[in-house]
Amino acid sequence: MPVKYEGPTTEMEKAETSVFGIPVSRQDKLEDERIRREVQQKRLERTQRRQRRNRRRLLAGAWAAAAVALMVSYHFGLRALWYAAPKGDISNGGVDISQIRYPDWIDQAFIENPVARTGTPLTEVKDLAIHYVGNPGSSAMGNRNYFNSEGVEVCSHFVVGLEGEVIQCLPLNEQSVATNQRNKDTISIEVCHPDETGKYSEVTYNALIRLVTWLCRQFHLTQENLIRHYDVSGKLCPLYYVQHEDAWLQLKEDVGEELNAYR
Ligand SMILES: [Zn+2]
Prior knowledge:
By secondary structure, the chain is α/β, with parallel strands linked by helices. The chain contains 7 helices and 8 strands, in the order αββαββαβββαβααα. The protein has helices at 10-16, 26-84, 140-147, 202-219, 229-233, 239-243, 245-261, and strands at 18-19, 22-23, 106-108, 127-130, 158-160, 166-168, 186-191, 226-228. It has a 6-stranded mixed beta sheet with strand order 3-6-5-7-4-8, sandwiched between helices. The protein has a two-stranded antiparallel ribbon with strand order 1-2. The protein is rod-shaped, with a radius of gyration of 43 Å. The N and C termini lie far apart (117 Å). The model is unreliable at 82-88 (pLDDT under 50). Bound molecules: zinc ion. Zinc ion binds at residues 131, 229, 235, 237.
């Protein structure tokens, strides 16, 4: 018995699908299929674009969050590290002199005599240079005022007085005129003395040790960074401590002891 063909005839095919009852031809169906694929493709592309945009936004958000976190942490903590980092006016040990806190036993009385106060920047501190004023019985303020008088061409950073007073005559970022070729990398300290020998009195000596110890701490130096004017130019200054080498070594030792005591 022959199998009856039951597939769609052209007529049936034509009538098979319809939109609102209107028959759709094979050609129309192919066109529909093409449009459907096109729409799907466009939808896919739109989705991919949206995903890419979202990824970009997420990345931008992450960067912004990182920037904010950095600013906040800088404000509350990293700023301290920033200040501790080398960047200051004096490069030795990365010391920023604007951050130095002065003890109350240092009296600042900067001179204004433009000849003695040259204003030449002091950019590194390698040593501390010790002197004696060479004028027995004169006071710290008397010597400071001398530096400030017209025509005088010398000035040290500090003068230590007979009563243990300490006067600062120059800012620490300016060179002194006291230690010849070492003005460029030393802080200079003049010390008063009661008589011609140039030996410091006990109270003056102790004030000097305190000042030197404080400076060593500020500039990351040790007692080995103490020098005499004599070591630079051969001048008999500080007289007593040139003539008595043992007294000079003792002075350095005393500074070392003081440094180790409170390190
Ligand atoms: Zn000197």
